[in-house]
Each structure stands twice: as C-alpha cells, then as structure tokens.
Write a structure and sequence with these properties.
354 residues; globular; 71% helix; 16 helices; 0% strand
Length: 354
Amino acid sequence: MLPYWLMFGVPAFAALFERRGKALDHPGERWLFFIAGLAVCLLVGLRNDVGADWPAYLGHLVRASLTVFIDIPKLGDPGYALLNWISARVDPEVWLVNLVCAGLFSWGLFSFALAQPRPWLALAVAIPYLVIVVAMGYTRQGVAIGLAMRGLVALGRERSNLKFVVWVLIAATFHKSAVLLIPISALAESHGRVWTILWVGCAAILAYFALLQDSVDKLMYTYVAREYDSGGAAVRVIMNAIPAALFILVRKRFLLSPREKQLWLILALIAIALVPALVISPSSTAVDRVGLYLIPIQIMVLSQIPESFGRSGRSYRFLGFLVVLYSAFVQYVWFNFGSHSIYWLPYQNYLLQG
C-alpha cells in the first residue's frame, strides 16, 4: 500500500505550502510538477496485475493480436482497439497499452490541475479516487475522462467549443460513453447559442451514428435489462453532489470567469440530478459510469475552497489542510473498506519485475 500513499503524499505535502496567487511561479516548482506528472504516468501505466478488470484488459490485447487491421472496428472502441492492435505486434504484454493510456490520462489531468489556482491541491484531491481507482481500474474510461478534462479547460478557460468537441470525440474512441458530454458545449455557450447548438448538435448526431449506434442494444442489455448494480455507487454520486451543491450556492466566490461559472453550473446541476436518477434507475452501474465524468467538479470545487473562503493567511492554510485531510480520508476508507480494493494490493510494477 506504500506506493499509493507516496503517490498521494507528495502532492498533499506540496499542497500544504502553496502560496495564494503564486502557484508554480518558480521554474523549480514547475519542474517538480512535471516530474510528479511523469511519476503518476509511470505508476499508472506500468502497473502489473492491478485492478479488478485486469483479466478483461488482457483479453482485449489477445483479441487484437488475432485480428487483421481491417477488422479493428469490430473490437469495440476504435481508439483503444487500434492501440491494442499496434501494441500486440510490438510486445505481447499489456504494459505498452496501459502506458500510452496513462500518458493521455495524466496529460489531461495535469492540464486541468494547472488551470486551477492551486495545482498541487487539485492533484491531491484527484489521486485517491480518480487516479488510483478510475485510471488504474477502468483504463478505457480513465483515458476518456482525462481527455474530457483537457476539453473542459479548452471550453472554459480557452473559450473554444471546437476544441472541446474534438477532445471529447477523441475520448469517445476510447470509451463511447464520452459522446454524452458533447451537448455540454452548447449549453455552456452564452453568445451565438443558436449557431453553436446547430453545429454541436450535428457533431453529436454524427458521433452517435459513428460510435454509439451499434452498441446501444448491448449497453441497454448490460446496464438496464440485466439491472447491473455497482457497490458504492451512492457514495460516489454523493461525493460529486455535495461539492456541486456548494458551488451552486456560493459560486460568486469562486475565481472563475462568467463563462467558466456557466460551464460548472451546468455540470453541478447534472451531478445533483444523478442523485434522484440513482434512485429511479434500474441500474446503478449506468448512473455510476456517467458520474465518473463529473469527478472534475470535485477537483475544481475542493481545490478552490482555500482561495474562495480563506480570508487570512492562517484560514487559507487551514482550509487547504482540511481538503488534504479529507482526501486522505477518502483514500483510507477506500483501501480499508472498499469491496474491490483487494485487487489493487499489493501494488506491482513491470519495472520492478525480475
């Protein structure tokens, strides 16, 4: 368990010493943040036999090794299938697939963290669940979430609907469910909304027919007809809903542009809407998987609490400490009480194999 606590401990320790308005303003700090990103990439990407779905991902690689190039679309998500097809011809082990996926995920995560006033605190919030559980457990959706996070930066800070849609479309080639995020681009637009709705709607329709149409029956059977349930889904949905509610109530305090506030308000409302959806849905797994895309709202809200509510230097540091303590608690609870955490222990890495 020590590698996981080191992965969390480094950004958590750095977060305690972040200065208000001076995040990563020194070249040495930026290099350290880059090294942290590389470390996360290697720890996630070179893991060995870690995660509950590890056998399933080995199966993806085996099937790709037996498939000719023209049949790659038959393997499922095209981006992930192509990566497996290439990797199978380089090395029969799954490490290359996972390393590329980890690189894409880490790039999206660290781009998102750098867009926050306190990047180290944002990273500390992300490690316990988004990195350890999602990126290490759900490889394909982990990539999709990472790329979607890069898209959120483009949509909010860079004011580019087109970049957001492009990143989400790339994300959807790794996990088709990412297509559901495309309409957010139109909802977040306050100027020229009619034109934006038209072209974003066309992009969503094309993405549906290109990526989702052939899978709808299978998804409906898997998540609805069979009434799949995810243990802990209610907890995970609430973990999104609470910071979402906080943001809605006091969003004027957050250091965001009007466009960013509009974007995060939409995501916050969706996060809260998943609470009743969880109650009425025949499959908690379906709601749970959608909720994974809303984890960024936890990172944004919690990492901005010190900036938004800390009136003095002392309260600023104390609030940062509370966020770090909460994140440590999340990691402790998951490893000690999570029903599937045994599949993460012990941590093993290809670099450490004999």
